[in-house]
Amino acid sequence: AAAGLSYVGAYVINTYKSYDNFLQDKYALLPAVIIICVAVVMFVIGLIGCCATFRESRVGLGLFLAIILVIFIAEVSAFVLGFVYREKVKTDVQGTMRSVFEKYDGKNAESTVVDYLQEQLHCCGVKNYSDWTTTQWFNSTGNHSVPQSCCQQEAKNCTGHLDRPQDL
């Protein structure tokens, strides 16, 4: 379990590099760091449990049980906090995404991140393709289209024009 959690934490930190423009709050990596710390603690606790079982120590097994109960209570608390604050996180991320989409010009670093995000997640805009109609890039292009990264991979000859939304 500790190895699995370590992998998940490292994967999240590695993946963060692709989306760091959307997550301007550096505390977004805090859950991944916590996961890695929990993995280290779980490894130590596992060793305590193994040693206590091997030695058949009642004190060691009691300590192991107490630690497991504390971890269970912490997990329930984390679940409740995640459930309570899910809307705040959603609102913050959408606001940050809208500001990054406003900076889109097809050439800067933010544009590359937006294109990558839309291609990887198979999406267009924050909620849908109509989000692009309020951006400066949409109005400055002159052709009133969305970026090519909004096009479905299966769509042939997709230009990003809004007259063919089925291609987006």
From TrEMBL:
<keyword id="KW-0812">Transmembrane</keyword>
<dbReference type="GO" id="GO:0005886">
    <property type="term" value="C:plasma membrane"/>
</dbReference>
<protein>
    <submittedName>
        <fullName>TSN36 protein</fullName>
    </submittedName>
</protein>
<dbReference type="InterPro" id="IPR018499">
    <property type="entry name" value="Tetraspanin/Peripherin"/>
</dbReference>
<feature type="transmembrane region" description="Helical">
    <location>
        <begin position="28"/>
        <end position="54"/>
    </location>
</feature>
<feature type="transmembrane region" description="Helical">
    <location>
        <begin position="61"/>
        <end position="85"/>
    </location>
</feature>
<dbReference type="InterPro" id="IPR008952">
    <property type="entry name" value="Tetraspanin_EC2_sf"/>
</dbReference>
<keyword id="KW-1133">Transmembrane helix</keyword>
<keyword id="KW-0472">Membrane</keyword>
<dbReference type="Pfam" id="PF00335">
    <property type="entry name" value="Tetraspanin"/>
</dbReference>
